[in-house]
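In this supplementary section we document a worked example of the pipeline. Step one takes a protein sequence of length 70 as its only input; no multiple sequence alignment statistics are reported here. Step two produces a three-dimensional model, which step three serialises into structure tokens for compact storage. The input and output of this example are shown verbatim.
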Amino acid sequence: MSDFTKPLGYRLITGPDDAEFCARVSGLLDEGYRLHGSPALTFDGERVIAAQALVLPHPVSYEAPVDSAR
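The serialised model returned by step three reads:
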């Protein structure tokens, strides 16, 4: 479970490319997030580090501005 009280519309998950990283991404997918783009990988000299962006699809709510005096 996330430390955030309100789900974020965008998350970037990073960490060593291991089972824990995959479990974190899988958990967010279970919460309704969708993968956004391809994962990125780099090597820090000791291990492979992965990054994956995820987005939470939700309807865009737009509040019309209050009618101002002209």
